[in-house]
Design goal:
single chain, mainly alpha, three-stranded antiparallel sheet, two-stranded antiparallel sheet, 46% helix, globular, binds benzoyl coenzyme A
Length: 472
Amino acid sequence: MSIDYTQRIPNNVDLASDRRLQRALENWQPRFLDWWKDMGPDGTNNFDVYLRTAISAEANGWANFGYVKMPEYRWGIFLAGQDPNRAIAYGDNKGKPAWQEVPGELRSTLRRLIVTQGDTEPASVEQQRLLGKTAPSLYDLRNVFQVNVEEGRHLWAMVYLLHAYFGRDGREEAEMLLERHSGDPDKPRILGAFNEKTPDWLSFFMFTYFTDRDGKYQLASLAESGFDPLSRSCRFMLIEEAHHMFVGESGVQRIVQRTCDLMKEHKTDDVRALGAIDLATVQKYLNFHFSVSLDLFGQEASTNAANYYTMGVKGRYLETRIEDDHVLSDQAFEIDTVEDGRIVHKAVPALSALNERLRNDYIEDCARGLLRWNRVIEQAGIDFELKLPHRAFNRRIGAFSELNVSPEGKVMSAADWKANAHKWLPTDEDRAYVTSLMGPAVVEPGKYANWIAPPQRGINNQPANFEYVRFN
Ligand code: BYC
């Protein structure tokens, strides 16, 4: 069904046929807009931003580009097309038709997963609220705004499910999604990474590379859900997520490129003297964002994850492409975990290891970007390699949180770890240095801050000096 933009809430779910639901969502809409104005990109309500808007939920030709004031962005409800024959692919309900309504016994489990997913979306917008003030170019400014409006729409996606399928509890949860705030000591966001700050653009690019990629893997697992409306929501969200990860990957690559260019040109390692970000600092930010994002996958051995799978609520990454029985009740899976204060590799029941399996898929994917970043360094003839730290490094969730582990995977005493932490994670001084580079936003079309290289091509193939944002 194509998207109906004549409605107050654009949608492809025939919202007009359900007046009660339509009214409930129309009540939530002004609250969302108030939240956007209070907590979204600061001081931007009048800007005309060259944004893409979904025009169809099909894979081809779904995006339309044009200037939009962000509070007028057409947020709405877009589900990927329905497959009337879709069956649940795994667990105890394997082979049964996907559910079009919430099974009573799965109500609280599904609600909790949808709320956790929904909570991350506005959280990231809050985290990125001030970045526009220091954008390194109009191109980057437009990209952070694109990411923000799409996270806003992902919130809409989860709020629709809560309103449409969870009655009064769902409506209350939808309110709460606007009441918790990133870093709020009284009402924080649910997951750790979404209470961290995103104060500068290196952090932003690392966040969109590593944390949005967790989004990709979680959404892909929820896209396997037996609850079909959740599956169809996530399938559409995944299309948008790809751009966010592109922003992260290309952003870090452009920083690395600029640093290498300056190192070569001036024959020096000391690029801080030249106003750029040294590779050692890039590595420290990478260590931080990777380890914080690993925590988002939960415990290595998780009965929650086993239950989600057995019940048919949350599957594995690309479940239907995996060749096994899709029940896993008597299978094993090898994981790294902790025994007697040491990291051990051992086989555990496959069902309990599903979080770890997803984390493995994620780590493999993360490594691909590093290959591309390292190619830039290598091509500049510089002897340096960016590396993913060991999965046990700097963890707060799961078995490794009780150990002190170096980026190379060596277990050490708390005192030794602390004494070395300044080499591995951004120090106050590193953060102050990176912050010092974040000058006033660069607003001249085609110009870039000194610490980042221009992109290889423009958004929607626009020329280098395109005016992506117009200030009014
Ligand atoms: N922080 O059995 P476990 C995105 C809790 S990002 C705080 O391992 P489970 C995006 C856990 O809740 C994707 N608490 O849990 C990116 C549990 O609590 P209870 C977001 C944590 O359920 C960028 C306990 O520890 N989507 O979209 O297997 C920008 C035991 O843990 C954390 C989702 O996360 C943590 N990091 O796994 C914008 C998908 N980890 O039961 C957007 C939905 C665990 O003891 N969520 N805990 O009270 C889930 O699938 C699961 O909730 C989790 C946790 C994978 C997060």
